[in-house]
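Sample pair:
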Amino acid sequence: MKILKVILAVFMFTGLCLAQQKFTFAVADIIINESAVSNQIKLVTTKDEGMENMLAFLEKNTTIKVDKEIPIVTFKKVSDIEKYPFIFISANGPIKFSDAECKNMAEYCKRGGFIFVDDCVYENKQSLFFHSFKDLVEKKIFPGKKAEMLSFDHEIYHCHFDLPAGLPYVQGEPSGGWAITDDKGRVMMFLAPTDIHCGWFTTFGFSDLQTKQSFQFMANLVIYTMTH
């Protein structure tokens, strides 16, 4: 059976200056409308080995403190998600959201929120989720905006760990990282077709470099979000 993993990662921060800021990072389950997925797709919990490994990496290699409480939220109301500055969504196939959910995602981003969309190739070699979400973003969430590939010198790739080659490649399409920015240049959405989160699993057989860089990229993304 194909698996659709839909994850909401949330965090908040405290501190007076950037050099001394400490972050709290937590994970939450997100509920989506059942019509968003086909009968061949099964929803799974965020409490998996990959997520646990990623949280452990953040706690060990940054000043981020990890909160392992898992609340449940939805996209039905902006008020349900606006207190969470970071949303991480991953899936292995096309997905749909209602007009109201798309509107709420756009409003969430405009209010300072950040959404990280990461494809999951799983049992095929096509980045179906990446392309369907990119299409959704450009047509319904931010109509008129086009996702643009970030250059390798963008601060997301260098703000904590140095990733001179840009977005790490785990599997899927090695086509770089795509972003939707606001009028001031802040990245509101980052879309990855390279299965970053799969590198967080020790059982998937990826190289040490792929695993290391997948963790480092996520740490950079979290820190970028909290400082912009």
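The two ends are 40 Å apart (CA to CA).
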